[in-house]
Specification:
alpha+beta, BirA Bifunctional Protein, domain 2, YbaK protein, Rossmann fold, 3 domains, five-stranded mixed sheet, 31 strands, RNA-binding
Length: about 575
RNA sequence: CGGGGCGUAGCGCAGUCUGGUAGCGCACCUGGUUCGGGACCAGGGAGUCGGAGGUUCAAAUCCUCUCGCCCCGACCA
């Protein structure tokens, strides 16, 4: 492509709306994308090229893994989501619309129902299984707050695959095949990533993993073991009980009330009673429900004073479909005193009590006394638990972070930020059960198909890669997804130089190299700045001095070194470099 | 959805408090000089001041409503 004929509107200054986010800023400045509305973007020629390359890698590996491409509609009749309850469950995130006959539709945020509907209409026998179908298609989610450019959009390109197996074991095999394909995809794209254990959320099912792309600006927190292969999203992470969590020496003193007037926070109480916060117990009060719009139920949870509560883990323990912290008025209405909530004498309105495993056997703890102005000291959690009877349970509900100990090997866990690039699940019969997707097995028995689903945010992956691949001057694309492989800059405009540049451009193109040929009548500085901003991996420069020696300059975008190579053999040499970089 | 901020030329911004001819830089067009890291000089084109209503002799500026976008949080199969 000749730059002079191209549509690459680079910006000299940072767009005001994108200063916070490197990938967003550089994709806008480099003329890759433009914003149309909140969470809605246009892909310009360069951006589309990158998107198509990621898509190509994904398609290639999906096909290689035995999945078959289909295209499902983005516009979906409401009946399918109504069948599984997600028409209500999805809430405001679902883009809903009506046709001229006033029938309900939505724009697909994900396609489990549509694909299950397709498969149940076709599959009758175990002989037709397994089958794995995928599509690469635009998804629509009315995010409450779209942000960070392509990283969190309302319209985004996603690859979603769905496997259908006759048995659990088969489903697990499909899952493993997809996991291996995902590894190849992320490696080929060229990003640093970690596969982490994930929460399965409201999708149902129990086995899932996320492919997290490491980036400072990531919205997800993950913990990774410093010694073994344990890695998990903090939502799903568990940790060994640390040494400091084991109770202080037993004093032999009896549990008793102590006045703590106006001391409500952990810090205030710990300071007032001269105990470390690790010897206090923090209470959290939640309202939750097990169906959309169900009557709220109340749960009280206890973690060590210095810990945070993992609400995702909590939600999982309560098998809740929704959950939120209780408001102050709701606390008082239930007979609870904010700041003084403890495990003793909890009102009957509290249906569930969860005690974090870390403190389940702790003694010598300071807990709330459930009366205003008082805490209890020398408390043994096991005794309190016993007194609570049926409604109390022990569970892993504390948030895990840096410094916690690996549940597998006990080494220190490290915390990182990540961008969720892919997520794979074994769904089991969650959808096939609700939608009656059945088959006859070898014995003629009717069984539910066992399902798995596998997503990759294709447009998000473009931005996530940019998030990792940039420096102070601009983007630094990996060869595998760069919009062009080579940036050819002609610095001089004499007829001989133009002819030489033209010749090299034609020769490279003939060798199958993707070249952006900067033939513009611009000063060198402008061309260098734009080349760095666009981030094309190899730069070939035709300057006056080197041309006189019959040489051209070759430089990698990520390197400072410049090589001089013979113009006569330049095309072959450069093509070889490109091929080598692609692996 | 709660909190905060911002909408003025393609981009970045000033002007708003204190009402009185719509400005600056970059980009763009023309001419000239330049030409290895975002050149210089001269001339020029380009704006319903987000929208609607109101106050006023007069509104980018004051008032009311409204739309949009960004940031923090909640949310995020």
């Amino acid at each position: 492509m000749r730059y002079s004929k191209s549509f690459i509107p680079t910006l000299r200054e940072d767009p005001a709306e994108a200063r916070k986010n490197p990938s967003h800023r550089l994709l806008l400045r480099g003329g890759y994308i433009r914003q149309v509305g909140a969470g809605i973007y246009e892909f310009l020629p360069l951006g589309l090229k990158v998107l198509r390359k990621v898509e190509g890698i994904v398609r290639d590996e999906m096909d290689r893994a035995g999945a078959q491409e289909v295209m499902l509609p983005a516009l979906v009749p409401a009946e399918l989501f109504k069948e599984t309850g997600r028409w209500d469950l999805f809430g405001s995130t679902l883009f809903r619309l009506k046709d001229q006959k006033r029938n309900d539709y939505h724009l697909g945020p994900t396609h489990e129902e549509v694909i299950t509907d397709l498969v149940r209409g076709v599959v009758r026998s175990y002989r037709q299984l397994p089958v794995n179908l995928y599509q690469i298609q635009w998804k629509y989610r009315d995010e409450a707050r779209p942000r960070a450019g392509l990283l969190r959009c309302r319209e985004f390109l996603m690859k979603d695959a769905y496997s259908f197996d006759a048995t659990e074991e088969g489903a697990l095999a499909s899952y493993r095949t997809m996991r291996a394909a995902y590894d190849r995809i992320f490696q080929r794209v060229g990003v640093k990533y970690r596969v982490v254990a994930a929460d399965s959320g409201a999708m149902g099912g129990n086995t899932s993993a996320e492919f997290q792309i490491l980036a400072e600006t990531g919205e997800d927190a993950i913990v990774v073991c410093s010694a073994c292969d344990y890695a998990a999203n903090v939502e799903a992470a568990v940790a060994q009980r640390s040494l400091s969590a084991v109770a202080a020496t037993v004093s032999g003193k009896r549990e008793s009330d102590i006045a703590t007037p106006n001391k409500k926070t952990i810090e205030e109480v710990a300071e007032f009673l001269k105990v470390p916060s690790t010897q206090t117990v923090k209470a959290g009060v939640y309202l939750f429900g097990q169906a959309a719009g169900s009557v709220p139920r109340m749960a009280v949870v206890f973690v060590r004073g210095d810990r945070r509560i993992n609400e995702v883990a909590l939600s999982r323990e309560l098998t809740a479909t929704w959950l939120r912290p209780a408001e102050d008025e709701e606390l008082s209405a239930a007979g609870l005193q904010a700041g003084y909530i403890g495990p003793r004498d909890l009102p009957a309105g509290v249906e569930k009590v969860l005690v974090d495993r870390e403190i389940a056997e702790a003694t010598e703890m300071v807990v709330g006394a459930n009366k205003s102005g008082f805490h209890r000291q020398h408390a043994a959690m096991a005794d309190a638990l016993g007194a609570l009877g049926e409604r109390a349970n022990i569970a892993d509900i504390r948030a895990v972070g840096s410094g916690d100990l690996c549940p597998q090997c006990g080494a220190a866990l490290l915390e990182y930020k990540g961008i969720e690039g892919g997520h794979i699940f074994v769904l089991g019969t969650h959808y096939t059960g609700k939608m009656g997707a059945k088959f006859l097995d070898e014995s003629g028995t009717e069984k539910l198909i066992v399902m798995g689903c596998y997503g990759i945010g294709v447009s998000r992956l473009v931005a996530a890669t940019a998030e990792q691949c940039h420096n102070g001057d601009g983007l630094t694309w990996p060869m595998s997804i760069a919009p062009y492989q080579v940036m050819l800059s002609a610095l001089v405009t004499t007829p001989e130089a133009v002819a030489a540049a033209d010749g090299l451009y034609e020769a490279l193109t003939a060798l199958g190299v993707e070249v952006l040929f900067d033939d513009r009548d611009e000063r060198p500085g402008v061309k260098f700045k734009d080349a760095d901003l666009l981030g094309i991996p190899l730069r070939v420069t035709l300057g006056k001095k080197s041309l006189e020696q019959g040489k051209v300059e070759l430089k990698a975008r990520t390197s400072k070194d410049v090589e001089l190579i013979d113009i006569a053999t330049a095309a072959e040499e450069i093509a070889a470099r490109v091929k080598a970089a692609l692996g």
